[in-house]
């Protein structure tokens, strides 16, 4: 991207290499015009690594120190201790902090934990105890320490503790990812600062991202939203990002992404992370298409037949020889178009073989018997049945478990294959897609083309339904579906442009227009809209300051902020101090990015309220600062 005007100079796209991140990053950079690399001024990334790691429970072991309270719900910490300490709602100390217990806990656990999280009761009113615990831990070990008040100033001790622990668990994973990007930059002699997209659609310096990786939990969809607005030239639009695993929908208004009223929810964990409001459905280009008396799409992701055949030409022969089975016993695993292959490739280095060995060692007996007959060439369910001498229904459970554990990959028919059959997408092997559509379509009495058109229409209908559900969020999805499909003389109208990004989106526009009335746009560079968003994102600083009376009998007020608890002699003094502090917090943050006051949009919202009859007035100040890296060149 040209930072002077935000135009895209060149782009490239490559498949993710999950087993070796550096390989995929290197491949995608190598495909760019190399003459531009010597002039790079900024590198920025978005990633779903934090989301996936949290969903899969793959974060590194972290310990949690609770000061002044205990929690009743589940906590994603490996070891937890509750100590004396904490404050009340006015920021006054409730009990003395027990640092000796902290020392004992760290000395007993530092050999098996990667990081620590600290959460003190009412730390948002006074962070002194969290900071004291952090200082004690840092004197005993060099492992990362995360404080709850550093991540959120909202009330909710349990959610703040969860957020702190998740952050602590993600630090080693994020560090590994960023090191992978930096290693490719160094190899290509790219000397430029690096930024990371946060899940509220803003950018953060690499140092901040390493300290708060939990804030990148939804950075992928956030970058897609910002990218859709940038490449379409729109300040207000709804973005639809059709990816491999899911379809994500989000809204940007006047250049600012709509933020969820509640914190980001990842899996079973409700966090206090400020995130873009996203509507996600588990339907993407790689969603598994399967039949069982009717057509099903998803929710699981598989490797498309057309893509797999590029690496495994044997698939074409296997599909031609496939024998019909009873649809009574078919499910999402037992399909004529389902094939399975070990994760990793034969001939890879010893680390990969060691990984496969450890995976095999941890398998249950019923899983290991099936794993043993699956190698580095795809095998069908019938192949496995013949090898183990069992009916497929006897080992479907094992196959499902092995796929979930990522010991093996599932290859199958997908919407991407359907587009290959219809000639609307031709990146890989269309022949195997046609053979797959022929096999599955025969169960529904459809030829390959009709079967593929039905998939395409269902996919577009799902996008339309997700758009409807995004805007009509108080209605049940099943009621919206009835409205969408059963109303012959009505059509849902969207009054702002719908910008679609992702490699295959052009193909779905005609069908999508059957269901909704909207200005649907497919901008240039829609295939790399996510990457464009990672560069075009704003630097955003949000802050809140609460002004509350100390109590009856005094005119003094507390000023609670992210940096301190200040006592003011009266209300006017408190408001004046809070307003000046807010401006300082915003512009100091922007100054760290090299942005001057005239390059920053600063908004200050004030809300006054009186809690009850005879009570003194309270005030909440909400500050928003917005700057853009593109302005650094101006």
TrEMBL record:
GO terms for cellular component: cytosol. Coiled coil: none annotated. GO terms for biological process: glutathione metabolic process. Residues 160-300 form the Hydantoinase A/oxoprolinase domain. Residues 8-139 form the Hydantoinase/oxoprolinase N-terminal domain. One of its GO terms (molecular function) is 5-oxoprolinase (ATP-hydrolyzing) activity. This is Hydantoinase. It comes from Methanosarcina lacustris Z-7289.
């Amino acid at each position: 991207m040209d930072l002077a005007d935000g135009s895209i100079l060149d782009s490239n796209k490559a498949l993710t290499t999950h087993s070796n991140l550096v390989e995929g990053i290197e491949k995608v950079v190598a495909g760019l015009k190399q003459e531009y690399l010597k002039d790079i001024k900024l590198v920025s990334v978005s990633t779903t690594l934090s989301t996936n790691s949290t969903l899969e429970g793959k974060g590194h072991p972290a310990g949690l120190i609770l000061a002044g309270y205990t929690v009743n719900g589940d906590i994603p910490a490996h070891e937890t201790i509750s100590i004396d300490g904490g404050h009340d709602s006015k920021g006054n100390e409730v009990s003395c902090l027990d640092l000796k217990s902290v020392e004992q806990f760290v000395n007993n656990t530092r050999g098996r934990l990667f990081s620590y999280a600290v959460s003190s009761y009412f730390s948002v009113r006074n962070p002194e105890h969290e900071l004291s615990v952090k200082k004690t831990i840092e004197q005993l070990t060099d492992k990362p320490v995360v404080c709850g008040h550093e991540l959120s100033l909202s009330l909710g001790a349990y959610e703040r503790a969860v957020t702190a622990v998740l952050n602590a668990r993600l630090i080693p994973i994020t560090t590994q990812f960023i090191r992978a990007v930096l290693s490719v930059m160094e190899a290509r002699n790219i000397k430029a600062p690096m930024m990371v997209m946060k899940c509220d659609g803003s950018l953060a310096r690499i140092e901040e991202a390493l300290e708060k990786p939990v804030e990148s939990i939804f950075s992928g969809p956030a970058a897609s939203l910002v990218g859709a607005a940038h490449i379409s030239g729109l300040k207000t639009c709804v973005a639809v990002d059709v990816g491999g695993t899911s379809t994500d929908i989000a809204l940007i208004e006047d250049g600012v992404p709509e933020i969820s009223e509640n914190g980001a929810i990842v899996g079973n964990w409700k966090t206090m992370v400020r995130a873009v409001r996203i509507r996600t459905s588990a339907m993407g280009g790689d969603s598994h298409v399967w039949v069982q008396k009717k057509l099903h799409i998803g929710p699981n992701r598989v490797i498309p037949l057309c893509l797999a055949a590029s690496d495994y030409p044997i698939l074409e022969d296997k599909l031609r020889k496939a024998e019909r089975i009873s649809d009574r016993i078919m499910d999402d695993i037992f399909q004529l178009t389902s094939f399975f292959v070990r994760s990793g490739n034969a001939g890879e280095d010893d680390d990969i073989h060691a990984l496969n060995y450890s995976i095999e060692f941890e398998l249950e007996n019923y899983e290991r018997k099936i794993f043993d007959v699956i190698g580095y060439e795809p095998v069908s369910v019938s192949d496995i049945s013949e090898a183990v001498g069992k009916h497929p229904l006897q080992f479907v459970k094992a196959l499902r478990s092995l796929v979930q554990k990522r010991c093996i990959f599932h290859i199958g028919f997908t919407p991407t294959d359907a587009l290959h059959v219809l000639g609307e997408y031709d990146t890989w092997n269309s022949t195997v897609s046609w053979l797959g559509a022929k096999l599955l379509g025969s169960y529904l009495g459809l030829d390959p083309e009709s079967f593929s058109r039905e998939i395409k229409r269902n996919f577009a209908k799902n996008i339309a339904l997700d758009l409807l559900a995004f805007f009509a969020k108080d209605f049940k999805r099943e009621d919206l579906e009835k409205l969408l499909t059963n109303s012959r003389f009505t059509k849902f109208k969207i009054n702002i442009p719908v910008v679609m990004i992702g490699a295959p989106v052009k193909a779905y526009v005609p069908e999508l227009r059957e269901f909704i009335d909207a200005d649907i746009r497919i901008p240039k560079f829609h295939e790399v809209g996510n990457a464009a968003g990672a560069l075009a994102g704003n630097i955003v600083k949000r802050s809140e300051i609460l002004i509350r009376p100390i109590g009856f009998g005094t005119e003094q007020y507390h000023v609670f902020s992210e940096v301190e608890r200040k006592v003011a002699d009266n209300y006017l003094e408190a408001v004046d101090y809070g307003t000046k502090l807010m401006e300082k917090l915003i512009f100091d943050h922007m100054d760290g990015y090299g942005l001057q006051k005239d390059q920053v949009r600063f908004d200050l919202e004030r809300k006054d309220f009186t809690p009850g009859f005879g009570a003194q007035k309270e005030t909440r100040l909400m500050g928003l600062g917005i700057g853009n890296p593109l302005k650094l060149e101006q």
